[in-house]
Specification:
Blueprint: E1 2-9, E2 12-17, E3 34-42, E4 45-53, E5 59-64, H1 78-87, E6 89-93, E7 102-103, H2 112-130, E8 135-141, H3 144-154, E9 161-165, H4 174-192, H5 196-207, H6 215-234, H7 263-270, H8 273-276, E10 290-295, H9 304-312, E11 318-323, H10 330-333, H11 335-349
Parallel strand pairs: 5-6, 5-8, 8-9, 9-10, 10-11
Antiparallel strand pairs: 1-2, 2-3, 3-4, 4-6, 4-7
């Protein structure tokens, strides 16, 4: 590997360029057609960021993936690859413990605070690599909508704007909201005659969920919501999302000491993030321009969170848009419209 940045700041370690993919100096970078993989090294984790697209104006859209436990390139589908990357560069980031990230650290060292610092480290490394005048737009989907606010509340100075896509800013509230939205959706689908057996089973699950938080019951509800959206697509209640995504590249990395493939279990079960974390009352601290994008029929992150996020964000420049034919992933189910909304927002602010 060739060192491309040694950036001695509190939260920034070393960014490494993967040898064989690119090994050029800053002067040699073709900003109009970026295709680079860099690593951000921070607090014993090495996290890859795959950077593609048109960086000629030094405008970068950083994607915070869902999960916890997803990976960045799962978002490189048509809306990003064929549309947004033509407008600006896109950074597909593998979070600590996810995708192709590596690390010499223990489970006990993982927290949302350190993951938020990872995001801030990434921002500083991008500006060190491509120039301090680079403009960074931060986008978080699902769990990324938890991590994004966590990072911005710490330091939003590196970012031009925030884009919340079906973001989970209030995991703490999921337990009770799931019981309401799942029952409402089940009753609606049964009346429409859609997948009646499945939705009757969902009603049975909801009815037998305890009033007080239980981790097992929470994940029963979460699994019902995920499977429920598949049923909505099968029954043409929402548009069936695309599956044309880049996938997770199998690069030849050395795994050291601990590489978590079970990030959801670690963060959800052992560290209690879904039970304890809420940023609702702290969204007012996010004052950079913000865009909230949500699927109308989202039951994985209940769609009412869209208006709640919009109302609580502290920015005087904020927008909200609801995709009428989508659930949790409008970038897949309505890719053209999704790309239009993102590009319009970026171009207005870049």
């Amino acid at each position: 590997m060739k060192k491309i940045v040694i950036y001695k700041l509190k939260i920034v370690g070393i960014a490494l360029l993967v040898l064989g993919i690119y090994s050029c100096s800053k002067e040699d970078i073709n900003l109009s057609d970026l295709n680079e993989t860099i690593f951000v090294r921070h607090k014993n984790a090495d996290m890859p960021a795959y950077i593609y697209g048109n960086g000629s104006e030094k405008v970068f859209l950083i994607i915070l993936h869902g999960g916890p436990g997803g990976h960045g390139l799962q978002y490189r589908s048509r809306s990003f690859r064929d549309e947004i990357e033509k407008n600006n560069a896109v950074v597909y980031f593998d979070q600590r413990g996810s995708g192709n990230s590596q690390g010499n650290y223990s489970e006990d060292e993982i927290s949302i605070d350190i993951m938020a610092e990872d995001v801030l480290a990434l921002a500083k490394v991008i500006k060190a690599r491509y120039g301090k005048d680079s403009k960074l737009f931060l986008m978080g989907h699902s769990w990324g909508g938890t991590l994004g606010p966590a990072a911005l509340i710490k330091d939003q100075g590196e970012f031009t704007a925030w884009i919340d896509v079906d973001g989970a800013h209030d995991p703490k509230g999921f337990y009770n909201k799931y019981k309401v939205v799942l029952k409402e959706m089940a009753d609606t689908q049964i009346v429409l005659g859609n997948s009646i057996d499945y939705w009757q089973n969902v009603n049975d699950i909801v009815q037998n969920i305890g009033a007080n938080y239980s981790t097992d019951d929470f994940f029963k509800l979460n699994r019902a919501a995920l499977a429920g959206e598949e049923k909505l697509a099968e029954d043409n209640f929402i548009i069936n999302g695309e599956t044309d995504f880049e996938g997770n590249p199998q690069l030849n990395f050395i795994t050291v000491k601990w590489n978590s493939n079970g990030m959801t279990n670690i963060l959800g079960y052992k560290k209690g993030l879904w039970r304890d974390v809420s940023y609702t009352n702290r969204l007012s601290k996010i004052t950079i321009p913000s865009l909230v994008l949500f699927g109308k029929h989202d039951i994985v992150v209940p769609a009412e969170y869209a208006q709640e996020a919009f109302d609580n964000l502290g920015s005087s420049d904020k927008e909200i848009f609801i995709f009428e034919n989508s659930a949790h992933s409008p970038m897949s189910s309505e890719p053209d419209l999704f790309a239009i909304k993102v590009i319009e927002f970026i171009n207005r602010l870049k």
